[in-house]
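name: query_chain
kind: protein
chains: 1
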Amino acid sequence: MWIRVAVFLWVLVIAGYYAWRADHLILMPKITLRFENRMPFKQPSPMEGIVGVKMFFRVFPDCSSPVPNCTGHLLAVYREIDGHWKPTLFNEAVLLTWADGRVGPITIEPRIGPYLNVFCTDSDEKEIMRCLAHPMLRTSAMFRKRSEEKHMTFRFDIQVTNGAPISLKVRMDDRPPYWDRPLIEVLPYDENSSN
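structure:
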């Protein structure tokens, strides 16, 4: 009798472990975003010579096994004012574009990607432009530098489905040619750092 009870309890423990493990694996982030501070991707316009060159700044989604149904999101943009991050009009999550032009969802493969476009700069406009799937008109003037400003510093909070968010600090300086050489660093993501 006690052997049956022991076997029953053992089977119950094993079944409980596998039920917990399945739920636990679903909740674990499967993707890590990585920013490589190297020469950004230059993409000439189809009308090069008439229209300027765009420089794309991207993050790479690392994973150990294929992750299906992934979308990239820009969670929010903050502006640094007097050493503090202040919220901007860009305060809701929107879809970003992948380097190959798709919006998502896609399957991310280990060591293959594709890269996720975060923002780009343009030789004609000389300002930061978001790489959004659907433009937000209310934020269109947010990245334009006023003539009296020596530099602008923004924080982009980015996340890919099944991954932990990261933050990129982007500083655009007044030195020529500032449009294609922003200073970028990865910051620890802190959803409460906007105060």
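note: The radius of gyration is 22 Å.
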